[in-house]
Amino acid sequence: MCGIAGIIYRDGTHDVGVEMTRMLQSMKHRGPDSTGYALYGATADGGYVMRYKLADANDRRGFEFAERLERCRLEVEARLGELGAQISSAERETEYAFRLAFRFEGDLKSVADYVEDVPNCEVLSLGRSLEIVKDLGDAESVATQYHLADFVGTHAIGHVRMATESDVDISGAHPYWAYPFSDVAVVHNGQLTNYWQWKRRLERAGHRFQSMCDSEIIAVYLAEKMSGGASLEDAMHDSLDDLDGVFTYIAVSADALGVAKDEMAAKPLVLYEGDDLVALASEEIAIRAIIDREIETYDPYEREVLVWQR
């Protein structure tokens, strides 16, 4: 079933970590397995932020588990140094999840590929303003674990997941970074029926996949289109012709948030558009969790793409 949500402000920064948590927690019944956020904060001053993990929440903890993680963490930072990156901060968010801020001039794909050669390393996001946080459990537990109440930003998307076709782990949780395109991420409710066709095509184009989840296909599809010069909105319009299935997805970039529905529009989405913000979610209860006044909402139509710029 799953639930998706998005919010974008037109008037500066807000407590998007707190607000997205409220939206997602109100839809806990749609997906109890995992919760994920793509949060957009202040653009780093010429630098990048990378979120990565070295293990999963439900991995078995052996005798040398902590020592192995520490060796891998040091190896990740060493590899960034080899590529010429200058690390400005390194934080351990949980036992297995980390956040790095660094300055770098060069190809982001080379960074992600080289870092992910470290055993069990998975780059969750890499960009100037995008930070993806996802883990097992409901929104309140994930937000507490990663201190998201402190996150101030301009826009965000989120996802609560009910696992149906892949494992209950962090790799199968949404959102997905549009590797290797900086600051683009996707959440999705639905199913793609031409998953394997697009996975093989995108792999031949040099893209990598970390899961068996069809939502990752959407993210990498958008990255491929945008790498060729398409705007986020144009790439989303193209996806309605190329991707088969029943789906509604939300995509975000550094300065925009958009939603797309397939031609049947069977997957629910409710939208509120005000003077200061746009909020959308699988259920209206999620929007009302952050707006304490009477509002009017509406549903986007079939084969519709809507994009809002900051």
Features:
alpha+beta; 310 residues; Alpha-Beta Plaits; Glutamine Phosphoribosylpyrophosphate, subunit 1, domain 1; six-stranded antiparallel beta sheet; single chain
Protein described:
With 310 residues, the protein is an alpha+beta fold. It has two domains: 3-38 and 153-309, Aminohydrolase, N-terminal nucleophile (Ntn) domain (Glutamine Phosphoribosylpyrophosphate, subunit 1, domain 1), CATH 3.60.20.10; 44-128, Alpha-Beta Plaits. It contains eight helices and 15 strands. The protein has helices at residues 16-25, 65-82, 108-115, 139-145, 195-204, 214-227, 232-242, 284-288, and strands at 3-9, 34-40, 47-53, 86-92, 97-103, 122-127, 130-136, 155-161, 176-177, 185-192, 245-253, 256-261, 270-273, 277-281, 305-309. The strands form three sheets. It has a six-stranded antiparallel beta sheet. A hairpin with a 4-residue loop joins strand 4 and strand 5. The two termini are 30 Å apart. The model has no long low-confidence stretch (mean pLDDT 92).
